Amino acid sequence: MDPNSKYNLNGKLDSSKISLKLKPTPILFRTKYGGSPPAKRIKLNENGVNGTAKKAITFSNVNGHSLKPKVNLQEQRRNLPIFDKRNKLIELMKQHSTLIILAETGSGKTTQVPQYINSARLMENGKIAVTQPRRVAAISVAMRVAQEYGNGMSIGDYVGYSVRFEDVTSKKTRIKFLTDGMLLREAITDRLLLDYSVVILDEAHERTIHTDVLFGIVKNAQRVRVERHLPPLKIILMSATMDVDHLSKYFNNCQVVYIEGRTYPVQMFYTVKPHDNYQTACVSTFFKIHREAPPDHDVLIFLTGQEEIESCAHQIRMLSKDPEVEGPPVKVCALYAAQPSMQQMAVFQPAPVGTRKVVISTNIAETSVTISGIKYVIDGGMVKSRTFHPSTGMEILKVQRISQEQAWQRTGRAGRESEGLCYRIYTKSQFELMKKNSIPEIQRANLNSVALQLLALGIHMLHFDFLDKPPNDTIEAAFEQLQLLGAIDDINSKVLTNLGRKMAKFPLDPRFSKILLSAEKFGCLEEALSVVSLLSSESIFLNPPSKREEAQNARQKFHSGYGDHLTLLNAYREFENIGQNNRKVWCHEHFIHMRNILYVREVRSQLQEICKQCDIRGSSCGSQMDQLRKCLLSGLFMNVAELHRDRQYITLDKRQVTQIHPSSNIHGQQPHCVIFTEVVQTTKCYLRGLTTINSDWLNEVAPDYVKNHNIKFQRDSS
Ligand code: CDP
Ligand code: MG
């Protein structure tokens, strides 16, 4: 293929139309780059990364050759860039109590370093914890490592994993992969992490809130263990990007080691003009590649979230079957955090010979997982992220431009095994306008949960040793909310109330824990448990793009005029009444996601267990839905919005103008007053996940809030 050629799709394709009839959507690209971008961004020499981290060591890779995917596991291990440096790395890990390891994605950090530590017996009697920001990564690498150990060892034996609501470990487990959120929860009962000899905080560059807090927790645990003559704690920080001066300084100028990976040149293309509909542009670009590239060249597309990915997957599946479209058969795989584990695992399986694999992923595939066979990357240039606005009190889920750093990571995915190509669905000038680095989550997210967890550890967030401090107004907002929920007596308090201590036991947002803890009072624990579990899992409703109406009709009987939460509850209640043998058919008939609803059940039983530990008496409100709605309000009273004028809702707390999201089942109903669980921003601000309430309940359920915050309704609820 001539990389400089502009192309159009010759009237073949309008991927935005599900009718699949073709209209020109020419995407013009121009080449701006040939070469592998990320490696040159930072210079490493014996003075360290950019000269500051004192004793950094640079390894270079002399015999760069491509990985052969079909060789056996042990051979694959030996082929990884990290393998040649194994002994040196073990030596360094022995010498240093804290070490930062930098290497390109796919070098073998996550899967190999824990095994090296284990084989060199660096962990004495303790275990190795390896954190991952996402559950999919924790599960997939744990499975991979268990497989590499072989000898019929199954997951949960020597190698296990622990993610929210799923613990696959046993007494025998020595290497434990867990989400950063899970390790933080473990720290509540084991502040010094005495269960572990080595803690590996992986994907440190992602800077999730939990990893950021863990930086402080492990640093403190390491120091205190030395002071108290307890067994030492070794800290390993692993990252795929290069800017680690800051991190090294924070860990007392610790040693940094850089392992050069094998990256191959990636030819890059920018679009000639901006494309607002990046999703359609991605599909069009895919088909351009599809017509021209050999079948074993796989494609990775970066989009932002489940809906977008599923709809893009659908379009590609349908279009690729169209006899007018040239190209080999296609295996389409979606990859997003919310997916059931089994489906996620399919992404890692190679496609049959002669079939092209296309993986459509969120930013998960940027650095946390490696998929072999990728030769082409299509970068939509967007990411969905949550941002908290202390001034409005709202946490908004919004699709926004990625950072340049993310763009480079995405590009790099095309050059893992051989030379590749990357199509950026944005112009060169759009790229230049992108932020250089992403803002760490701790500086943009709601901190309620973390503030509560730190308090459970006896730490007030204001006095915590952060790598980067969160903004003061966000900290204040978090404490204010915890006080309103009754978890602390006043905002400077360092101790949790009785209620607060119970709230910290749940792996939930404090508002949801509060709902469960209020359920006894409203006599609706059964229902509250179901609703909170449904909200803690992925949607149980399937909405295949081609059968949307059919799905809605099939579920019509679950519809509740009280809103989305109660509609979900109705579906869940019916599911529970169906005999085990009929479940599959029932799910199919009602467009219910079977795996997701079974997961809800699992979550529910775990939350029920914690409720028992908190001595909450079981109860059910039967058909008295007011009880349940009041109970939901007891946790979500800060998320109330009132109908202002035609279709416009104003939030009571900070008076933000919003609308009900079209996907809500009470969209168009215009109730006077609602509670919401999510705010989504596209062109407008939308409320999603709703329950209607009576406005006079607010004073009954949260009188202090109404009084102290001067909360007023503009209209009567008549
Ligand atoms: O952590 P890092 O990105 O440096 O690499 P890794 O996750 O340890 O992956 C090393 C190699 O193992 C990848 O290039 C894949 O070939 C393989 N791998 C895999 O096949 N399946 C997994 N679930 C994880 C890794
Ligand atoms: Mg990794």
From TrEMBL:
Keyword Zinc-finger (UniProt): no
Entry-linked CDD domains: DEXHc_DHX33, SF2_C_RHA
A Gene Ontology BP annotation from the UniProt entry: positive regulation of transcription by RNA polymerase I
The organism of origin for this protein: Sitophilus oryzae
Catalyzed reactions: ATP + H2O = ADP + phosphate + H(+)
Protein name as annotated: RNA helicase
Cellular component GO terms held in the UniProt record: nucleolus
Keywords: ATP-binding, Helicase, Hydrolase, Nucleotide-binding
Domain Helicase C-terminal: residue ranges: 281-458
Residues annotated as domain Helicase ATP-binding: 90-260
Cytoplasm among keywords: no
Record-listed E.C. numbers: 3.6.4.13
Pfam family, one: Helicase_C
GO molecular function (one): RNA helicase activity
